[in-house]
Amino acid sequence: MEWIILVLIGLTAGTLGALIGLGGGIIIVPALLYFGTSTSLLTNISPQVAVGTSLVIMIFTGLSSTLAYMKHKTVDYRSGLLFFLGSGPGAIVGAWVNQSLNIVAFNIYFGAFMIFISLVLMVRDKLKPFPFTKSGLKRSFQDAEGNTYEYSYQPIVAIGISFIVGFTSGLFGIGGGSLMVPAMILLFLFPPHVAVATSMFMIFLSALVSSVTHVMLGNVNWLYALALIPGAYIGAKLGAYLNKKVKSDSLVNMLRIVLIIVGIRLIYQGLVG
Q: Which residues cross the membrane (predicted)?
């Protein structure tokens, strides 16, 4: 039974992560914590193990969706590598800070973070790009349909934001796309589909770094990871495909409601635990 649950968690996380650009960890970590602390289906799930295991899955989710987006030619590799200059070190720092959190502190911080992400998802389509995005490093991108997009960003600002994204990735076991995609769209004028694809490329690179750190710290349950990987890999391909075919507004609305509910539950658990 536990294997079926883990495969379904991986499939759901991979699909939603690639479709919206979140990376999937925002689903995997709370799911592992719930089944590991509130049921007898999963055992030995601490915050550190949930985060470390999730980040190993993010490698395969990020790789799968990046390969799919490569076929659609929507990945801005140059920008993704520049963002990684910030997210890589941030992921390592986040992984080390994670070691100092007990279950009570982790539940409170992660619950608050999930509510914050739900608010970001709520307003990201209503916000307008900031005016200073007209200056900085100029980028021109042509997609597979021949459409050309112009956007720009300040490298120092981009690396600074990426460091924060990487830090939250290593700390909470999430991909970081929940923060990076809105930043790329609002601050740097990225086309939404290019922002999602480039975010997944950066998530793949960051997950490699942060997961290696968590492996060194002994925070990975390899049996659970092996059960999660197939579903996450297939789900990421499905999500990347759906990203080109359907509007994700209804899914985003549903996801942010779930994030608020789960976030409140985690905070409550932390306060009463």
A: 6-37, 49-69, 81-97, 104-123, 156-174, 186-210, 222-242, 254-271
Predicted local confidence at residue 137, as pLDDT: 77
70/74 Cα distance (integer angstroms) = 6
What CA–CA distance (Å, rounded) separates 212 from 195? 26
Model confidence at 93, pLDDT cuts 50, 70, 90, reads very high
Question: How far apart are alpha carbons 116 and 123 in whole angstroms?
Answer: 11
Tokens of 4: 């079926």
Q: Name the nearest CA neighbour of 58 among 142, 176, 164, 154.
A: 176
DSSP for 200-251, please give it: HHHHHHHHHHHHHHHHHTT---HHHHHHHHHHHHHHHHHHHHHHHHS--HHH
Task: Check residue 71 and give its pLDDT.
Answer: 83
The pLDDT score that the predictor gives to residue 97 is 93
Instruction: Determine the straight-line distance between the first and last CA of the chain, rounded to whole angstroms.
Output: 28
Maximum Cα–Cα distance across the chain: 56
- Residue of higher predicted confidence among 44 and 107: 107
Return the residue matching tokens 């589909």: 193
Long-range CB contacts (within 8 A, 24+) of 252-258: 252/20, 252/121, 255/16, 255/20, 255/118, 255/121, 256/117, 256/118, 256/119, 256/121, 256/122, 257/118
Residue-level pLDDT at 247: 61
**Do the beta carbons of residue 214 and residue 42 sit within 8 Å?**
no
The pLDDT, as a whole number, for residue 18 is: 72
Supply the angle between the helices 47-72 and 25-37 in degrees, to the nearest 10. 150
